[in-house]
Amino acid sequence: MTRRHRNSLPVPDDLAMEIFTRLPSKAMARCRCACKLWSSVLRSQDFTELFLTKSCARPQLLFVREDYSVREIVFITSPQPENPEENSYVVATNHLARFPRSNGFYGCTNGFFCYGANRNLKRLKRPVCVPVICNPSTAQSLILPRLISKKRYGVQSYLGYEPMEKELKLLSMNSSLVSDEWISVEHQVLTLGTTKLSWRLVECSISHCPSTKWICISGVLYYAASADGDSENSMVVCFDLRSEKFSSVKLGKAMPDSTTTMVNYSGKLGLFMSGDSHDDVTRSSTSFELWVLLDAAKQEWSNHVYVLPPSWENVVAETMFIAGMVGTNEIVFSPSYQKMPYYVIYFNVERKTITKVGIQGLEAFQGKSFKTYLNYVENVKLL
Q1: Residue 135 sits in the same domain as residue 151
Q2: Domains of the chain: total
Q3: Dist. CA 153–CA 104, nearest whole Å
Q4: Cβ atoms of residues 246 and 225 within 8 Å
Q5: What torsion do the CA atoms of 229, 235, 239, 243 make, to the nearest 10 degrees?
Q6: Residue 211 has pLDDT above 50, yes or no
Q7: Do 24 and 171 sit in the same domain of this protein?
Q8: Separation between Cα atoms, residue 169 and residue 241, nearest integer Å
Q9: Could you read off the pLDDT of 22-78 as tens digits, one per residue?
Q10: Residue 361 region, left (φ>0) first, then alpha (ψ -120 to 50), else beta?
Q11: How far, in Å, are 236, 338, 369 from residue 73 at the CA level?
């Protein structure tokens, strides 16, 4: 075999990449180790972008569990059903990866997951909580540097993707007690993929207390917050990942932390929350509200109220979480603590139907709780 043949694929590059995109992520990892030529193709930006585009067309359900017995985080996926029918089920057999136990989940963006981890650093007697980025599809994780701060805990982080520069950025901040009110301080940004990972301080003139509710849409990080430490004075803080500037939008009503879920509603920010006087989602719930941000500059929202059908009481037997939304018609709920058999519930807001979808393949985790994420896409970009 000539050198020319050894350095080229036996089929056209486009066809080879199309074939590789059909492989499971674990098989792809083995192919990267098979030879330098395959590794070069699978690491190329053209291939990772093609794979991500195809993944976005087939989003999945992601189940995340902290396994305290072995001090690990477990990631498992299943197909995400569209227009599910009664008595349908999906099979969760794709065990992506395991990572060391976290110190709090931050969330998922563009196939990458962010969580906190305790780390022992030199000259410090106690461990420090630092952010960790991991990719369940490639089984890689990256422990990030400690923030520019004297504080060891109280860190809140949000992971975003800036589509123009194709960059992942992490926004982190500490909380501090100022004039008897908890507010965010020391706002910092780290850009992944740079030669030397380092934090840089960014200015934020908006006094607020951040929450764990957040989402990234079209290069903007949105997270729920309260002003002056008052939960009744709710707002959404917006961070533009390209300009690295902050802005805020007032909601004009309380945002229940236990039930509010941020969703991507046709490219706009949506806030789902209980429409009842109580915050919890239970069998006695009667309605839900969806607030859609129409114009951030004008502080303009639209409000939709969805009344649950009577069949809700027959299907729901425990406290539920609003997992999110599929498209603009399906609201998905998951139990606070999954019990056998595992399931999620779909509420079609147009047809007014309630459908329970079984999750098979998690029997080994009987009695264990999972956090459910919708619209997860596999990303084979290496850290």
Answers
A1: yes
A2: 2
A3: 11
A4: no
A5: -110
A6: yes
A7: no
A8: 7
A9: 887 777 878 887 788 878 888 888 888 888 888 888 899 888 887 766 678 888 888
A10: left
A11: 30, 16, 12
